[in-house]
């Protein structure tokens, strides 16, 4: 979830990076915070699309190890017919 504190810390680290540079620990923290922020934004976009009646599809046949394909493999017990479903928001987010 995106909080005011999360955004403040991301901005604080960005300012420090431009001004004087970051330590390896701060770089790691910055990347983790950015990933958390992006994951939350992506989730909000998908939720908004789903609530408006749009059902997301898969972008590919599940041959990779992404979280979407892994969930699909679990759901279908590893069976995949190789067909590509119609594009959905994951096409933009994956």
Q: Characteristics of this structure?
A:
62% helix, elongated, 94 residues, mainly alpha
Description:
The chain is an all-alpha fold and 94 residues long. Helix content is 62%, strand content 0%. The chain is built from four helices and no strands. The chain has helices spanning 4-19, 24-51, 67-75, 89-93. The longest helix has 28 residues, at 24-51. The mean pLDDT is 78.
SSE topology sketch:
Blueprint: H1 4-19, H2 24-51, H3 67-75, H4 89-93
Helix pairs in contact: 1-2
Question: What does this entry show, briefly?
Answer:
With 94 residues, the chain is mainly alpha-helical. The protein contains four helices and no strands.
Q: What sequence of helices (H) and strands (E) makes up the elements?
A: HHHH
Largest sheet: none
- Give me the secondary-structure category: mainly alpha
Distance between the termini: 19 Å
Helix content: 55-70%
Please mark out the parts with pLDDT under 50 across 5 or more consecutive residues, or reply none.
Answer: none
Strand content: under 5%
Q: Report the principal-axis shape.
A: elongated
Number of helical segments with 4 or more residues: 4
Gyration radius over CA = 18 Å
